């Protein structure tokens, strides 16, 4: 039986691979699959840049071998750092190795992995009545949702968000992703969420609620709507990654029936080129 935390990690990893492989000229990401890892390299280096590397659960490839493959990659820019993510089982016994190469645990990013069985979902039991929920499927609706996400996650002003180029947004892929919007009685967007289905599991991303709308249940409504839509589109489970507060008993996702199935580990490595010799020590 596949461990449930592996299901969550794999669903996100496969979703990101799908997005990275789309032919989108404005998205400057080089995707590369290496033994045991899926990599998203930026085309050039910059101050503090961190490329994203996700370990494939259950690959059975030793971590030192994966790290050597990362160092040897010809697709990544030289002198860059990485954010290395993986299920906790991927890092069993790796503490000494990570200390030797100067890697640092990142405890500030969401690490809790949660899963919801959609086969038993009661689609009629919406947790927050009285809000209008719909799938966004036209250009203006999608643009409006990305403005909300930009304001919430990128901490931009409403004026700055109005000028964002959604075509250059890695997570803006209407052909692959599905977006839901929650609106109030005056047709203002309160909250939004998105899903990408891979292997029967829907990864839920970008649940964002406007600050002035928080505390009214809009995030619950957006998450629930995403789950209902995912089941309608054939998914059997919904997966997400969040912080421990939202994953705890009484937290947003626990209240909706999501179960905590594990945690990711996230490690920051400042310069891949500097660890080559250290791996052989």
From TrEMBL:
Coiled coil (UniProt feature): none
Family annotation (PANTHER family): N-ACETYLTRANSFERASE EIS
Full protein name: GNAT family N-acetyltransferase
EC supergroup of this enzyme: transferase
Keyword Chaperone assigned: no
EC number: 2.3.1.-
Location of the N-acetyltransferase domain: 131-281
Record's keyword terms, sorted: Acyltransferase, Transferase
UniProt key word Transferase: yes
GO function term, MF aspect, one: acyltransferase activity
Organism field: Brachybacterium hainanense
A UniProt-annotated Pfam family: Acetyltransf_1
InterPro entries, sorted: Acetyltransferase_Eis, Acyl_CoA_acyltransferase, GNAT_dom
Matching PROSITE patterns: GNAT
Gene3D superfamilies (alphabetical): 3.40.630.30
């Amino acid at each position: 039986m596949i461990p449930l935390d592996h299901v969550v990690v794999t669903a996100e990893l496969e979703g990101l691979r799908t997005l990275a492989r789309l032919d989108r000229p404005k998205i400057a990401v080089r995707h590369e699959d290496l033994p045991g890892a899926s990599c998203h390299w930026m085309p050039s280096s910059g101050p503090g840049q961190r490329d994203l590397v996700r370990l494939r659960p259950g690959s059975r490839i030793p971590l030192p071998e994966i790290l050597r493959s990362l160092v040897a990659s010809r697709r990544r820019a030289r002198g860059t750092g990485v954010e290395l993510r993986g299920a906790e089982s991927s890092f069993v016994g790796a503490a000494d190795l990570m200390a030797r190469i100067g890697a640092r645990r990142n405890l500030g990013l969401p690490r809790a992995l949660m899963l919801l069985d959609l086969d038993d979902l009661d689609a009629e039991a919406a947790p927050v009545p009285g809000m209008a929920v719909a799938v966004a499927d036209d250009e203006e609706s999608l643009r409006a949702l990305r403005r909300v996400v930009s304001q919430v996650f990128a901490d931009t002003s409403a004026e700055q968000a109005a000028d964002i180029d959604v075509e250059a947004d890695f997570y803006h892929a209407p052909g692959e992703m599905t977006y839901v919007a929650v609106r109030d009685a005056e047709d203002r967007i309160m909250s939004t969420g998105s899903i990408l289905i891979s292997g029967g599991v829907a990864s839920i991303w970008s649940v964002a609620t406007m600050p002035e709308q928080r505390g009214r249940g809009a995030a619950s409504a957006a998450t629930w709507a995403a789950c209902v839509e995912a089941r309608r589109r054939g998914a059997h489970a919904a997966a997400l990654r969040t912080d421990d507060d939202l994953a705890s008993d009484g937290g947003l996702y626990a209240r909706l029936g999501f179960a905590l199935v594990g945690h990711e580990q996230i490690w920051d490595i400042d310069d891949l080129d500097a660890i080559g010799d250290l791996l052989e020590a």
